[in-house]
């Protein structure tokens, strides 16, 4: 099982890639690593943080997709009626945009540090964008 590490300041999370459930999405995500960006708070989805990618497209289609990510689940929305993005739920979340409800590919689940995820999400909400780095654990 492939794992990734997500770091931001004092926060550290480890997640497992869902290579059987979302193989193409995992391949695209792995090609983006190491990923240095910022998580910002979602606008419409509730308790979630996201990385927007605008008009970028990867050629992905839907696989293992959902509109209701549970706490610690990461989705990659391949783009379409809204911009491409990665979203991570830190609590109650219904994936949506200004165009309405969306569905994204669930490709990663946080398995370590889940107890700190809500505090991290609230930090993003109240303190603004947070620098993050995501790397494959070897």
UniProtKB/TrEMBL annotation:
Q: Which InterPro entries match?
A: DUF3830
Name of protein: DUF3830 family protein
């Amino acid at each position: 099982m492939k794992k990734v590490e997500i770091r931001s300041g004092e926060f550290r999370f480890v997640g497992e890639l869902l290579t059987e459930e979302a193989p193409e999405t995992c391949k695209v995500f792995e090609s983006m690593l190491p990923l240095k960006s910022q998580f910002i708070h979602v606008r419409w989805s509730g308790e979630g943080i996201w990385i927007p990618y605008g008009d970028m497209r990867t050629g992905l289609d839907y696989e293992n997709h959902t509109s209701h990510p549970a706490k610690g689940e990461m989705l990659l929305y391949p783009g379409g009626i809204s911009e491409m993005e990665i979203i991570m739920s830190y609590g109650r979340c219904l994936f949506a945009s200004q165009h309405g409800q969306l569905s994204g590919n669930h490709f990663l689940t946080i398995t370590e540090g889940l107890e700190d995820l809500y505090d991290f999400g609230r930090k993003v909400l109240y303190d603004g964008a947070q620098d993050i780095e995501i790397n494959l654990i070897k």
